[in-house]
Amino acid sequence: MLPQFLIAAPSSGSGKTTITQGLLRSLSNKGFSVQPFKCGPDYIDTKHHEWASRNVSINLDTFMSNPEHVKEIYAKYSSKADASVVEGVMGLFDGANRMKGSSAEIAELLDIPIILVINAKATAYSVAPLLYGYKHFYPGIKIAGAIFNFVNSESHYQFMKDACEDVGVQALGYVPRNENINLPERHLGLQISAKDNYEDTINAMALHLEKTVDIDRILDICKSKRPNYKASLNKTNSKIRIGVAKDEAFNFTYHENLRSLSEIGKISYFSPINDSILPDVDFIYLAGGYPELYLEKLSQNISMRRAIQDFAKSGGKILAECGGMMYLSKNIIDKDGNLFPMVGFLDQNASMENMTLKLGYRKIKLKEETLFGHEFHYSHLVDSKEETKDIEVYSARDKRLDTQLIRKNNVLASYIHFYWGEKNIYTTFWDK
């Protein structure tokens, strides 16, 4: 039997991320090998999970991949764990289209119970109909219990316990407000930085939760049959040499994407900020990240900029996503209008001026097949002379979008973060 559960909430802002990470660190400190997961396409929360649990965190996404793939990777990474903890996305039933891709859909798919995190800041017994609705709205899921966040006192919590008793949902504890355990945020969401003293913060979270949340009870009521996993043998084609950008500016990656690349070749990591030369590779992956926070350093590393430009011009294969695409442009313009020269392979500029959020799932329709990804950025392209041909991009609701997917020489560049843990993108675009 394996303690396994999904932490969800009625809406974003309820505190499920803070509580998830406090639970992960608490379990890790108790000696558990705890396996974290994240519903949806978020690549920042998984970094926090990894830090908190001391284990790599895996994305579970039923929009960007098929249900069998989600079940397979959940079983794979849970197979050696002492406990599995899944953090939900947005509200419990919020999906790309109704419940599609929602936390509820994933909980049903994996047949694991749900722990609701309720923001109780300005409510009391009125949580009863809320709990009743979440318990009975969709029979395919099981609400195992609830944790109440932003509770003022034990007497305030008593109202929540009364509501849980009358509805038939277990009250598993409460979390008082504590300004000392707030996580730092950037414009793309939560972000880890050495100067943020994250290690101290996450330990404080764990200790704070342990005082008023019944963690042992959660583990006890959420035990169920361990998912069955049979390992398959994957042969590596070591002839393909792969370079993956990885530093402070480029680090928005899905673990399963990197695993998929490792199955077709040997990965070497390099830093566009700190390294002066490229490793000897056939294919480069420039992932997204925060290049806008390191513009001066990236621009000053002229030798690396020239090396990547020469590689691209000579027919080298490159996948550049979001921040990686910005880096391949002529310049990145900061929010104050200052220009910082970049690689210059793509005839366009990327600008942080007048920032506007653009986000959502994406369907990429090629002649041969359909790929999936996610778009999430505040910058925009200006003066672009690059064109998209024979590729159509749609939203989750099949609305045609103007998101570019640039193919130039052997370079594929876009604002889209692709997911290819299930279908290798190298095989799709370059291994013909």
UniProtKB/TrEMBL annotation:
GO biological process: cobalamin biosynthetic process
Site (Increases nucleophilicity of active site Cys) location in chain: 417
Enzyme Commission identifier(s): 6.3.5.11
Catalytic residues as annotated in Swiss-Prot or TrEMBL: 322
Example of a GO MF term: ATP binding
Annotated TM spans: none
Reaction(s) the record says it catalyses: cob(II)yrinate + 2 L-glutamine + 2 ATP + 2 H2O = cob(II)yrinate a,c diamide + 2 L-glutamate + 2 ADP + 2 phosphate + 2 H(+)
InterPro entries recorded: CbiA/CobB_synth, Class_I_gatase-like, CobQ/CobB/MinD/ParA_Nub-bd_dom, GATase_3, P-loop_NTPase
CobB/CobQ-like glutamine amidotransferase domain mapped to chain residues: 241-424
Presence of keyword Cell cycle: no
Cofactor section: Mg(2+)
Miscellaneous notes: The a and c carboxylates of cobyrinate are activated for nucleophilic attack via formation of a phosphorylated intermediate by ATP. CbiA catalyzes first the amidation of the c-carboxylate, and then that of the a-carboxylate.
Domain notes: Comprises of two domains. The C-terminal domain contains the binding site for glutamine and catalyzes the hydrolysis of this substrate to glutamate and ammonia. The N-terminal domain is anticipated to bind ATP and cobyrinate and catalyzes the ultimate synthesis of the diamide product. The ammonia produced via the glutaminase domain is probably translocated to the adjacent domain via a molecular tunnel, where it reacts with an activated intermediate.
Role of this protein: Catalyzes the ATP-dependent amidation of the two carboxylate groups at positions a and c of cobyrinate, using either L-glutamine or ammonia as the nitrogen source.
NCBIfam families, A to Z: cobB, PRK01077.1
Protein name: Cobyrinate a,c-diamide synthase
Organism: Ancylomarina euxinus
